[in-house]
Amino acid sequence: MADDLQDGTGQSARQFAHAVSQMAVTNILAKGAGFEYVQPSATSALVDVMAAYIQKIGRDAQELAEVAGRAKPRGTDVSLALKDMVPYPVGLDDMIKAFQESQHRYEGKLAFPREVPKFPAPSKKRKADDDPIEEIGQRDSDKPAYTPSFAPPLPFKHSYSQQSHVVVSKEVDPKRIRLDLLHQKSEVQASLHNLADHVVAAPTALVDPVWKPHVSRLDLANPYLAPPRVESAARQSNPLTIYAAPTPSYRPVVAKPTKRAIEIMSGSDSLTNDNSNANNQKVKEDKILAGTYHEGDSD
């Protein structure tokens, strides 16, 4: 009896089968045979004999079904297995007759004093809308009835489960996507404008670059540099020209860098620009929703 149960229940299944068999044997001895008491060792021996008898019938019926090309035995297989019992074969007609006699003789006397619970206990099935993450990494301990005992365990539940998993929904409407991108772009532009308004211009001094080709290092001989010029005595005697730079014969024209001034906008001008930007933004959104806006169109 215990071998027919699944291997996942193990020791608990054998204990449950032994307890139910002991209850049945004790009930038959007390109410059917008329015994007032029985020793536990005798009850255990009768339980073992009954279990071996039932297992023998089940194995023979299974073998007969496999010989006939069936996976599960039928009633005919059980009847043939009873006829093959040694040394006392039992026929199906004899069993039916014995059951009818016992029903009339022990009517209402052989019932169990309480209802036998189901084993294993039925578990409440979780709804499909529960958290599917709990199934990840779990295996099915219960095998189907048609699965042979030597088959490997089933794979993880999440690999073959038909339940829908929670995924992050994304926007698929192209117009709505373009509107979202346009909003993000406008927010970035507004942030940059706010940053430029708070920037304080630091005072800078512009120095004109002067190229002096006659100046050279003494430790390097560069043939491409002109030698230093010697000023006249009149120029050296003039105190105004003592600290003046020598006038080269050739001076390249170098473009002076221009300073970019930051335009300071008044409050009315900034308000006007914000209104115009908002109007342009609304016009773009209307065009995108209408499907007439294309990249590169002027504002």
Compact summary:
The protein is an all-alpha fold and about 300 residues long.
Which spans of ≥5 residues are poorly predicted at pLDDT below 50? Answer: 1-6
What fraction strand? under 5%
Largest sheet: none
Overall shape: rod-shaped
Number of helices: 7
Compressed to H and E, one letter per element, the order equals HHHHHHH
Pairing-aware structural class of the strands and helices?
Answer: mainly alpha
Rg for CA atoms: 51 Å
Number of strands: 0
**CATH fold-level label of the domain at 11-105:** Histone, subunit A
| Oligomerization state | single chain
The CATH architecture of the domain at 11-105 can be given as Orthogonal Bundle
Give your account of this protein's structure.
The protein has helices spanning 11-32, 40-67, 75-83, 92-105, 174-197, 233-237, 267-290. It is mostly helical. Helix 2 (40-67) crosses helix 3 (75-83) and helix 5 runs antiparallel to helix 7 (267-290). It is rod-shaped. Residues 267-281 have a biased composition (Polar residues).
Question: Could you outline the blueprint of secondary structure elements for this entry?
Answer:
Blueprint: H1 11-32, H2 40-67, H3 75-83, H4 92-105, H5 174-197, H6 233-237, H7 267-290
Helix pairs in contact: 1-2, 2-3, 5-7
Key features of this structure:
299 residues, mainly alpha, Histone, subunit A, disordered N terminus
